[in-house]
Amino acid sequence: MSEVLLEVRDLVKHFPVGGGFFKRAEGTVRAVDGVSFSLHRGETLGLVGESGCGKTTTGRCILQLERPTSGQIVFEGTDLATHSEKQLRELRRHMQVIFQDPYSSLNPRMTIGQILAEPIKVHRLVSGKAAREKRIQELLTQVGLLPQHAHRYPHQLSGGQRQRVGIARALAMEPSLIICDEPVSALDVSIQAQIINLLEELQSRLGLTYLFIAHDLSVVRHISDRVVVMYLGKVVEVADRQTLYEAPLHPYTRALLSAVPIPDPKLEATRERTVLRGEIPSPLTPPGGCVFHTRCPIAEARCSAEIPQLREIQPGHWGACHLA
Amino acid sequence: MAALLEVKNLRTTFQTSGGVVRAVDGVSWDIQEGETVALVGESGCGKSVSALSVMRLVSEPAGRIESGEILYKGRDLLRLSEEEMRGVRGREIGMIFQEPMTSLNPVLSIGRQLTEGLEIHMKMSPHDAQTRAVELLAMVGIPDPARRLAQYPHHFSGGMRQRMMIAMALACNPSLILADEPTTALDVTIQAQILELMRDLAQRLGVAMLIITHNLGVVARYADRVNVMYAGRIIEQASAAELYANPRHPYTLGLLRSVPRLDEPRRARLAPIEGQPPDLTRLPPGCAFSPRCSFKVERCAEAAPPLIAIDAAHRSACWECERLVKEVAA
Fold it and tell me: What is the 8-class DSSP label of residue B268?
């Protein structure tokens, strides 16, 4: 397999809650609780799970937008925790992010051209105004926009076009890794496919590596080479795309897959669904033992007592379940 | 059989800085007793405004129901006084909104929000209303309902709040429920819970339901009949089974082809609908979908095609409908 670009080792991020300036915190949200995975150059790794599972926090920790409580993030061979703020700034160039909401992640007072020029100026990627203009035109074309879009403001563009600007801004830095945090979930159905195709094209053309964070399992299956499933701050299953969707090991993955409605009434009429009982527990007080045992359809006594370790059940297929 | 609700040529407009927007532009659809009908489309297609028009909740003065009829059990809701309309909302027709947090009152207890409608519409005594509220919460699967009555919306999770909205909508035994993106804000596993609950309750209580959604999967599982909307108009109308098996409008076909599906082998490339969603202040004179349509001919830019019956249960608004059928079959 190709070289490892990013390795996340036993990542933990806890947030203290409650309390005040002089008061001690009253509790701890275990947003990410011991997450490990690796990402190879040129691959797309899907990170799926429901709200509160820690997928976004994991992404933010990788970008060092949150300092991890513990654990290591090794990017291009170096541990990010050992870097100074200045070194990090340089390194972040190689690691970019595309956000969910193209409405709130673009400055409304700047033209598209200015938005794209800023990172180029800050990092002195090209010198001279003419070269910068040329680079901006190039970026716009790359994401399927027109040169004249440089003079427009974000509110003059549609949601899909704004997301293209978000992608162009990430590309401006010539990154090796792009963290896509729900990049299509705010877009209309007919536009989602356009953006997914664009991301795939750019990947093959520029050799990009994606960490694709999303809750939509059909989209994740389409775009990812391998998939990590998270629940309540923990990784419950990792496998390549085909294995995960055809032979899921973990009862949570199975329930997630069965909850996705399929646009075919005939199929839906006969399809048996595993509807999970109950709600996602609070990450303030996660259940003991296996975090999923409170909703698990096959849980046994030991599931509430022992924490299942993530182990390689078949080659390349990891699961954290006593019964798998 | 007469329809429970029949919307005829409804036109709702909004005055905006960019000009007058015809959010709903002459649409007709109906719901029979006990049936589940879907309004499907993307943002800005007019599906939510259609439901708000039925409830006469379009915010004035910017928004206005220009013309049309909304016949509920034969009575035109547009001719009722505001006083009479209040007797319809919540009592005859219940409504479930997308965002349970913003549509529940944060400073009223769960119990009070349920009992208020019961006392006003059903003339129940506070004590009876309280008993009924407990029943309702139990019916929608909220554990320990009696204790929950004293709590406030912020004590509830998203899924629980949506259950509470369903309980409120069902409180006065309505014949019809309008559900506007009822599960869009929820997680997948909770979404499944809520949709199954809604279907079970609708069947058990014989309530008709209008589901407004952009999710084609949800429609496939839960709707009997479907109306697909684009830029304020209905462009295709059919039973759910028929619509998915034989889409007869390029937009519907495009939507179905653009989504990746879990039941099919993975495709190398998705087939998106090209172009941008329509700008409602600057719609082309002909068919609003024509700028993005791969079946476009000259005529499409000149005149908007009417919604024409293809057979008894299927209508499509496309000039090139026959060619589409042939090409899809080929």
Answer: S
Q: Using the 8-state DSSP alphabet, how is residue A11 labeled?
A: E
| Interface predicted TM-score (ipTM) of this complex, two decimals | 0.86
Give φ, ψ of B27 to 5 degrees.
Answer: -105, 150
Query: Which among A221, A268, A275 has the least Cβ separation from residue B266?
Result: A221
The confidence score (pLDDT) of residue A20 equals 67
Task: Establish if A194 touches chain B: CB-CB under 8 angstroms.
Answer: yes
Q: Which of B215, B245, B266 sits opposite A261 (nearest CB)?
A: B215
- Kind and range of the H or E element at A60? helix A55-62
- The pTM (predicted TM-score) of the whole model is 0.90
pLDDT in tens, A62-88: 999 899 999 999 999 889 888 888 888
Counting as low any pLDDT under 70, the low residues of chain B are 1
Given CB atoms, is B190 within the 8 Å cutoff of chain A?
yes
Pairing state between β B36-40 and B208-213: parallel
At B65, phi and psi to the nearest 5? -85, 110
Q: What is the pLDDT of residues A136-182, one digit of tens each?
A: 999 999 999 999 999 999 999 989 999 999 999 999 999 999 999 99
